Automatic annotation (TrEMBL):
It comes from the Bacteria. GO terms for biological process: bacterial-type flagellum assembly. The keyword Flavoprotein does not apply. Pfam families: ChapFlgA (PF13144). Residues 194-256 form the SAF domain. InterPro entries: Flagellar_FlgA, SAF, SAF_FlgA. Keywords: Cell projection, Cilium, Flagellum, Periplasm, Signal. This is Flagella basal body P-ring formation protein FlgA. GO terms for cellular component: periplasmic space. SMART domains: SAF.
Length: 336
């Protein structure tokens, strides 16, 4: 009986030891693990940024972070040496040889800076609508990277502008942090522009322009004459008066209505009078666009008449005075 009781106690003790060991294993902290790709928000890199499960040394700074919005690399060997004084050894590197570290940032694009300057020039110097003002810089600035916590818009702290030369000099306030703002000085030109229509390639005389032949660009308003074509739809379907080269704004004088009757072309000549319509064939002695007055030769009668071009190969001769039958040609072939 006593022996049986002792065996029960022994088994219970053994089970207790096993449970305690299992509990000890479950309570053992996870092994530190090296990361291979890291993004940091501060200007320093801490141990915890590079190593998971770093414990009480996670907040210890060991490296300087890359510049805002940029990425750098650090050798794993350098990380091992940096954490050695903090008693963090034997962590799992996963076989990596280097770690990439990216500094998080919020980008302020150049377009936002241009828009702010255009709005300031427009409102302060009455330079026309901001949407029509083009801004160029003496030195091409790059997109500005600021802390992700930065809030607020760009502000114009100082702006000088010469309307005659279109030159400006400005100091901008840029949000760089949650409460911080930095100064950026820029200079360049800000000038009013207008959309102009140009050909995208050389166009021969008489060629009819299609949408594929045209492009729209903005040019300084001072360089755009009053007769410049504004609106691509005004050029489509028109013909070139002479050869047109690319790079120059199209002007009204460059275009004409397309000729739909060619010199020497056989056309249908329609004679119209009150109560009478007579159709003949004739030969155009000059070219003309729709609405133009051209001369047509009746090759049978050898008489020339003038009529208005109303369509491709169609010329109409009209009169409000009726002609008596005795005055009309004896046959359709003789013509007026």
């Amino acid at each position: 009986m006593i022996a049986t009781a002792l065996r029960i106690v022994a088994v219970t003790a053994t089970l207790g030891i096993g449970i305690a060991a299992a509990s000890a294993q479950s309570a053992e902290p996870a092994r530190p693990q090296l990361k291979t790709h890291v993004t940091v928000n501060a200007n320093i890199v801490r141990i915890g940024d590079l190593i998971d499960n770093a414990g009480i040394v996670a907040d210890v700074a060991i490296f300087r972070a890359p510049d805002l919005g940029t990425t750098g690399t650090v050798p794993v060997a350098a990380v091992v040496e940096a954490v050695r004084p903090h008693a963090l050894v034997g962590f799992d590197t996963g076989g990596a040889t280097e770690i990439t570290v990216t500094r998080a940032a919020r980008e302020i694009p150049i377009s936002e800076i241009e828009r702010s300057l255009a709005e300031a020039v427009s409102s302060r110097f009455n330079a026309g609508p901001a949407a029509d003002i083009t801004v160029t810089f003496d030195r091409d600035p790059r997109a500005i990277q600021v802390d992700p916590s930065s809030r607020g818009d760009i502000a114009i702290a100082r702006l000088s502008y010469d309307a005659r030369s279109s030159r400006f000099d400005a100091t901008l306030e840029i949000p760089t942090g949650a409460t911080q703002r930095g100064l950026l000085r820029l200079s360049g030109r800000a000038y009013a522009t207008a959309e102009v229509v140009m050909v995208s390639h050389s166009v021969d005389r008489g060629a009819v322009l299609r949408a594929a032949d045209l492009q729209v660009e903005r040019r300084p308003r001072a360089e755009v004459g009053r007769d410049a074509i504004v609106g691509i739809e005004r050029a489509i379907g028109m013909a070139a008066r002479s050869v047109i080269r690319p790079g120059q704004p199209l002007r009204s004088a460059d275009l004409t209505r397309p000729e739909i009757v060619q010199r020497g072309q056989m056309v249908t000549l329609v004679f119209e009078a009150p109560g009478l319509t007579l159709t003949l064939r004739g030969k155009a002695t000059e070219a003309g666009a729709e609405g133009d007055t051209v001369t047509v030769l009746n090759e049978q009668s050898k008489r020339s008449v003038q009529g208005v071009v109303v369509g491709p190969g169609h010329v109409v001769v009209s009169t409000t005075v009726p002609r008596f039958a005795a005055n009309l040609p004896a046959a359709a072939g003789t013509g007026p």
